[in-house]
Amino acid sequence: MTAPMPCPCCGQSLPIDETLRIDEAGFVVRNGRFARLNPAEAAIFGKLRERAGRIVSKETLHSALYLLEPESEIKIVDVHICKLRKKLTPIGLPIETVWGTGYRFLPITKEIT
């Protein structure tokens, strides 16, 4: 495991544990590492977290974006998932594609919001 990153807000060391922390500003912290999510990514990840371990359809994820991107096509979900994976996989938060159905967030055991 790499050394923990400093907090982007205060500069203190981030906690090194398996707990998932998410704040209102869109920061996701796990194992001393963090990722910053934009509002659309946070909306999609929030929907995936609500149904952790279960398949979430593209349509459901697209509806989570409606207030943020009302004119968007459903294909935008794939774009946001790609960006989410680049940010979340390195901190141990994988999102799985379930071909022809949707996506699934593979949960961890501890979570703090």
Automatic annotation (TrEMBL):
Annotation: DNA-binding region: 11-107
InterPro entries assigned: OmpR/PhoB-type_DNA-bd (IPR001867), Sig_transdc_resp-reg_C-effctor (IPR016032), WH-like_DNA-bd_sf (IPR036388)
Molecular function, one GO term: DNA binding
The keyword Nucleotide-binding is assigned to this record: no
Superkingdom of origin: Bacteria
Presence of the UniProt keyword DNA-binding in the record: yes
CDD domains noted in UniProt: trans_reg_C
GO biological process: phosphorelay signal transduction system; regulation of DNA-templated transcription
Keywords: DNA-binding
Domain OmpR/PhoB-type: start-end pairs: 11-107
Protein name: Transcriptional regulatory protein, C terminal
Protein source organism: Mesorhizobium australicum
